[in-house]
Design goal:
Layout (H helix, E strand, L loop, with lengths): L1 E2 L41 H4 L3 E8 L6 H22 L5 H43 L9 E9 L6 H11 L4 E6 L4 E3 L14 E5 L1 E3 L13 E5 L5 H8 L7 E5 L8 E4 L7 E5 L5 E6 L5 E6 L3 E6 L5 E8 L15 E2 L5 E2 L6 E8 L4 E2 L12 E7 L6 H8 L6 E6 L1
Parallel strand pairs: 1-2, 2-3, 3-4, 4-6, 5-7, 6-8, 8-9, 9-11, 10-12, 11-13, 12-14, 13-15, 14-17, 15-18, 16-19, 18-20, 20-21
Helix pairs in contact: 2-3
Amino acid sequence: PVQIHHPKPAPYLHSLPANPPPPTIPRPVGRHRASDPMDTGADPPRHRRLRKASDVRTTAAAYPPRNGLKQIVVEAKARYEAEKNALKLDGSYASRDWLYSFKDWRWKVCLLTPILQRYERWAMRRYVKRVNAFLLAPDNVQQRSIQKLRLQACGRSDFTDQWITEAIGRWGVEDLELVIDNSSWRYDFRLLDGCKNVRLKRLVLSNCYHRFAPNPLTFQSLTSLTLCKESLRMLHVLDILENCAQLVDLRLKDSGCRQPAFSIVIPNSQLKSLQLDNYNTVSVHLASVPYLETFACRGQPTIIRYGDVPRLRHVSLNFLQTGDNGKDDSSGSNRTYQLSKFFGGALPSLEYLVLQLRGRQMWIEPTAIPVRLNHLNKLFIANVPMNWDTIWILCLVAAAPALESLHVHVR
């Protein structure tokens, strides 16, 4: 596979010089031909002699970013406050010495921030230069086929639209992953409608979303789609799904903010697998997904309702009840859920059910399920907390008369 080298990360904070030299780019071992018009320092000549590049990964390896420094400062301050409260040293000399050392350390970090920013700019310039030399190559370069391409950038770039258009429309990328860190990007996929070499089958978008546009042809050939973070805005998701006629696998991951109720209505879709990973929504309604076979939901407890899903056989629910911070279960929550909240609506003929319900306190109400799981053959219940009551498990077993296999794991 073709690999595009990126700059080495900057040294640690304590070893940075006052005026650091620009980072050097490691050059691959091999013969260097000065007459090669494409030898810009971004790609070694041997890459251009390959007839097919099956896997290309490019990453903007930014030097210690500003967001990282801010996180370090916030964590250090939090540790200081926690230790001060734990030891109750508000008026002691130890507490004041700790505070003074923390302020002195933060002052040194502020002095190093301009140096780190300079390293970031150098890294992004060289990263853009390398990607341009590979994707925006002249027309006289030998035609090559790229099967998989992963672009990751720490921020926006004026060349992002050109990279996507050239990768999909010119080089025929079949598997594209576009990750934008610390920012978001909007791309109009209608720019690819006039391209004849579009073979895109799998698309992963993180902090990159599609501009509202009617019927882009690129989405009609997709079989796998993954949307992460800012790409998960409800209107953008529905706009994309309406045009994915051949979509088989859909994954929605890591929603940053609370989403409204998610109702999926795609009666003409071939979708067979749906996975919601930390989607952070109130409820999910599988209204009309006629070919859906597998459904998985992980994150905080979510109300599940079933509609027109006649082929759904495998359901996996992995819920962790958290506190208000949404990050850990140390504080717990007083809200409880009836077991029937996860089996609402017109329940399909489930055959395999996986449940992993966790939390500091028991948040499942041991009530009977009003519907019958007549076709359920296998039931797997994982990581049941030791301080939880098991009556809810008996209620679930009582609703499955055809159950053949039962596995319960207690931690």
